[in-house]
Amino acid sequence: MRTISFAGLHYTYPETASRALDGVDLEIDSGLTLLTGASGSGKSTLLRVCNGLIPHFHGGVIGGSARVLGREVVRAPTRELARDVGFVFQDPELQAVYPSVERDAAFGLENLGVARGEMLRRVGDALEMCGIAHLRSRAVGTLSGGERQRLALAGVLAMRPRLLVLDEPLSQLDPEGSAALLATLHAAVRAGTTVLVAEHRHHLVLERADRCLLMAQGRVTPCAPGRPVETARAAAPRGSALPELSWRLRDVSAGPAEVAVLHDLDLAGGTGEVVALTGPNGSGKTTLLRTIAGLLPPLSGRVERRPGRIAYLPQNPSALLHRGTVRSEIAWTLRRTRSAGRPDAVLEELGLTAVADRDPRDLSTGQRQRAALASVLAGDPSLVLLDEPTRGMDDAARAALTAALARIADRGASAVVATHDPQLVSAVANRVVDLADGTARERRSLTAAAR
Amino acid sequence: MSTRSLAAWSASGLVIALSTSNPVYRAVVLLCALNLLLARGRRGSGTRLLLVSIGIAGLIATLVTLLLSHTGQHVLVRLPAGIPAIGGPLTLEALAFGMATGLGIAAALLAVAPLTLVSQPHELVDALPAPLARTGAAVGAALNLIPGTLRSAVEIREAQRMRGWRARRVVDWPAVAVPVVLTAIEGSMTLAEAMESRAYGTGARTHFSIQRWARYDTVVSVTAALGAGGFLALVVTGGAPGWFPFPVLSAPAISVPALLCCALLVVPSLQVRR
Question: Is residue A200 domain-shared with residue A258, that is, in the same domain?
Answer without folding.
Answer: no
